[in-house]
Amino acid sequence: MRIAVIGGGPGGLYFSLLARQFGPAREITVWERNAPDETFGFGVVLSDQALGGIEHADPAVVSGMRPMLARWDDIAVHFRGTTFTAGGNGFAAMSRAALLLTLQRRCAQLGVPVRYSSEITDVDALAADHDVVVAADGANSLIRERYADAFRPTVETGKCRYIWLGSDLELDSFKFYVVDTPGGAVQVHAYPDSGHTSTLILELSEPSWRAAGFAAAAPPRLSPGESDERSIGIIAELCKEILDGHKLYGNNSRWLRFPTVRCDTWRHRNVVLIGDAAHTAHFSIGSGTKIAMDDALTLARSLQEQPSTRAALAAYEAERRPAVASLQRAAQASREWFENVDRYTHQEPQQFAVNLLTRSRRVSYASLRRRDPTFIARAERWFADAAGGPVAPGPASAPGHGSASDGTSPPMLQPFTLGGLDVVNRVVIAPGGAAGVFPARDGVPGDLQLVYLGGAALGGAGLVMTGPVSVSAAGTDARGGAGLFSGEQVSGWRRVVDFVHTHSPAKIGVRLGYYGPDGATKPLGELRREFAAAARRAAAGFDLLELDCAHGRPLSALLSRMSLTPSADRVRRALEVFAAIRAVWPAERPVSLRIAPAQWCPGGHGVDAVTGIANEFAARGAAAVHVCAGTRADRDVYADRLRNQAGGKGAFAVIAAGSIAASDVDTIVLAGRADLCVVDQPTVDSPWLALRGTPDRAISKSGHDGGGCRAP
Question: Which residue ranges does the record assign to the FAD-binding domain (predicted)?
Fold first, then answer.
């Protein structure tokens, strides 16, 4: 088998030496456009886990790397004069030049020729003359461009500007600095790349970039290898407290926007993409080199193990694509967090540090606790003080949760005041989908509602919510749901409410909506009267009333994709229904708004309009917005944005729902992405149940609002 490798970066060289080891009879040649000592950039980061994988595949590579590695365990967040450090992370870095030298030497030992200063201009001819062509030519891959019709690439350009720099500053750990400037926050990612040098990446939004003077300083054009020295001078002054008199220098350093590359396929005939040529992941998760080297290992093994080249390339892509997709999702979340860092600078430094460390959604409260219990204990103490909650130890039986080393209860068990309503913890149970519509003869709630909601309250939830409750007989779902339009129904609900209040500290809320088939033609005046009448009946016992604008007709239609502007007439009509409820509902009890923005605008494209709509309702007395989302990504976009809008000065609480496991609640509320969480599918072995010492039969296994928020 003859193999041609285009690109002598870490991915191309590592693949070549592994392919040589796995199949000594192969003829492998690497073509690299640059000279052997010509490379750009600075430090390359690898986790201890990544290093272990490299060592397992070829111990000689790690042996060559080890003397040049700078290792650290801590990640420090410097923000507003504070420093919060989380340990237990296990990372190392070395200069890109040193890594390439190590791989070049290993290739030489194994007899793999590398043709430097050689650029391939005729890929078709190379492919015709070889069994496999491996394109490892980076994010700006010419091979990917040559066969774009086959690979079908997309490139999403990030919003922030960033520049890659080096310094003789000696660091002992990874450090995030957030520097306040008149134009906005500037973030600095800094880490050691040897015993005496460090890498600094400066990143900032376009407005901040312009306000800091870089637009005027940056030259319109730079020669290959040339650095933007004027910008480096401005940065040195901007970061003088960080540098503490140390030098800052460039290496082909200029302002860039990060390109996220994705391809529909990574193979075309006998040509295959690896590393950045196939996919990229934002530098803030430090996985670019790891992904490329993992690609290289998988491809080399597939070529060894599979019966044909075609089968090998297919097996390589099938194995690597899910792992790469997962890392790209994490990288996108991290990139978007930094692109919107100004949204979070209102947070207290301790919360900001937790938010930053968990930004990719791959690091959770639980994993931070495992890595550094002291960091989490400090965060828990801050959160408990802010919430005015308990600091006594929780039950030892709580699996995976429990209390911190100083006895502070975890964030999910801290209290919250929702529009004057004191809730004992942050856990909400709200049935949805088929589980939310229990059989109710003539709309009267029966034993099933009592067992379900009473069990949730006994299980320890701070707030339990009914399923859909119709305001009129005509507005009842055809399958038969509960209502609040008759005296018998009021008595049935009184039985449920009294049970919850008598046997638990939980609060109970009612979700009012109109779910009938004629909702689209229902006159507004009649809707207002029906909702107001139901609200008066609910006031006989419920602690909270929720207006369901997520499902059912016509309220969900009033806030549909076609009307996503706060001034729209449809929004005004929904506000009138809300006002009719608020006018008759006791002033001391909260009203919440239930919305499903992801159904109106998937992917967060309507987040600004949804925020405007929520603010309109808050201005008229909504104490909370219940963000119903079918996926974690949609939940993160909408709930987080509503919670952290306008410097964190939103006039309402945010209840997040959408694939939330009990173990996620601590992370979400501690990082400030929501105030309360609808837990997805609590069962007898859920950690929050164990925290409350619940009997094993308190709640049955069933679906809940967090899982999909489907229409009843």
Answer: 133-329
